[in-house]
Fold this protein.
Amino acid sequence: MNDETRRTPAGSAADSGNNGVKDKYQLEFEAQMKHFQRLAGPDEEYSPFEDPNLYQTDIPEAPEPVIRTQAQRAETQAPARQPAKKAKSSSHKKKKGKTAMSRQHQEHIDRSEPLKFGAANTDAINAKRKHPVRTFFIVLFIIILVLALLLHILIFRYLGKVTYLKDEDRRYTNASMKSEDVLNVLVIGSDTRNADERGRTDSIILLSIDKEKKRTTMTSFMRDSYVLLPDYDLDGDGTTYGQGDWCKLNAAYVYGGAELLMDTIEYNFDIAVDKYVYVDFFSFIDIVDSVGGIELDITDEEAEGMIPPMREQNEYLGNEKGTDYLEKGGRGLKVNGNQALAYARLRYVGNADFQRTERQRTVMNKILGKARDLSLLDTDKFICTCAENVQTNMTKGELYLLLYRLPFVMKYETDQMRIPSDEAYSYGTGYDGSSVLIVDFDQSKDELRRKIY
């Protein structure tokens, strides 16, 4: 092939394509053309496209391409690479270790896969899911924080509805029966028609909340109990603690308000009275209605006896005559606030004022029991109603702590008692000639200590 290779004359067509050098195929083609021209003769010009024998020539089929796997290609090429490794320069050998380490470090990376971003990056998502416990506690903390915030908002809402009274000076606060675990709140109920009028108290109940033993005790004090007003000159003779300074317990509120009533109980019965709550009887109607009424066991005699107080209540409330009258009694009879108030005020059926105090404690227990089973919305309505109709000497801070504990307090075991008990009194006549209860104070103190402390 090298012998027959030659250059074409300068300026020829071949010169522009291959710089005047003809390859073996072109030389063979020219030689064949000269051979065919000799066979055709000097008088004829031979053309290969007019030769019929040219198309009868058997053309061998092209061999099928050999498809090798990557492993086969590597085996085929491996021997050719070995000499190349020996021919490397010494400077390249110095970098051999570093290059091998880099190649080893990158062998685990599959660069044929596309990069993943956002939600497609499941590796990053799975990495975050490796701490489900931490995620659970974060969500739980947020829920508790939101609930606590809502609870505080509700408490401050209730606090804004309460009427706060100035805490007047106390005359006597030296009772021996007291404990940091027990909060004694005096619940004062009056049938006074005018909020500015200071009338006699028809309901005197000491509510004792024991946070250590988780129980509450309601103690009714008989309003006709004959007691001594501490440090108070009732008869105006210029001295205190004399015979003329004794009176019925319910009169103490008339003479000196809630503070004197608290001092009188603390002095005569030696039990600490921490705070007080005042509720008039007609606010009591709204409180009972806010829990949807209560169920009471009422006798036929009691149903008939409720008519006179209910007649007075209807007139005060502007109701039509005969509203809410009961034709007869019954067990588990559902009554509304108007009927429940008449039942609590009922005095001339049964054992007079003794049974009256029992009815009052029964109604309070029924209200608390009904409040425990209210829905969240009804509970909110109940607390709002109570707050709107309550007057107290508690500060906002003290009432805040009490409201915060209220859901737990409502689940406490509840007990009740009456002072004086059946064995701790006798009938007598007061300084002004009225009928009174002569109290056995020593026995009453023992009963209070045993029951509450």
User: Anything to note?
Assistant: The mean pLDDT is 82. The chain has three domains: 13-53, 128-159, 163-452. DSSP finds 16 helices and 13 strands in the chain. The first strand starts at residue 163 and ends at 164.
